[in-house]
Amino acid sequence: MGFCKGWNFKWVIFYFSLLLMEAVKGSYDPESLGVFFHDHANKELEKPRTGTLYNISLPANFSGMEVSVVRIRSGTFWARGVNFSFFNIPPRIVPDPYAKRLAIVYENLGNWSSYYYNVTGYSLVAPVVGFMVYDSSNSSAVGIQKLNFTIRGDPITVRFPQVELKGKNVTAKCVKFGAGGTVKLKNMTKPNVCTTEGQGHFTIVIPSPPKKERCILWWIFGFGIGLLGLILLSLVLLGIITFVRRIRIEKMERKSEKGVAFDTFWIGGSKMPSASMIRTQPTLENDYNP
Ligand SMILES: *[C@@H]1O[C@H](CO)[C@@H](O)[C@H](O)[C@H]1NC(C)=O
Ligand SMILES: *[C@@H]1O[C@H](CO)[C@@H](O)[C@H](O)[C@H]1NC(C)=O
Ligand SMILES: *[C@@H]1O[C@H](CO)[C@@H](O)[C@H](O)[C@H]1NC(C)=O
Ligand SMILES: *[C@@H]1O[C@H](CO)[C@@H](O)[C@H](O)[C@H]1NC(C)=O
Ligand SMILES: *[C@@H]1O[C@H](CO)[C@@H](O)[C@H](O)[C@H]1NC(C)=O
Ligand SMILES: *[C@@H]1O[C@H](CO)[C@@H](O)[C@H](O)[C@H]1NC(C)=O
Ligand SMILES: *[C@@H]1O[C@H](CO)[C@@H](O)[C@H](O)[C@H]1NC(C)=O
Ligand SMILES: *[C@@H]1O[C@H](CO)[C@@H](O)[C@H](O)[C@H]1NC(C)=O
Ligand SMILES: *[C@@H]1O[C@H](CO)[C@@H](O)[C@H](O)[C@H]1NC(C)=O
Question: Which of 4, 141, 274, 285 has the fewest beta carbons under 10 Å from its own?
Answer without folding.
Answer: 285
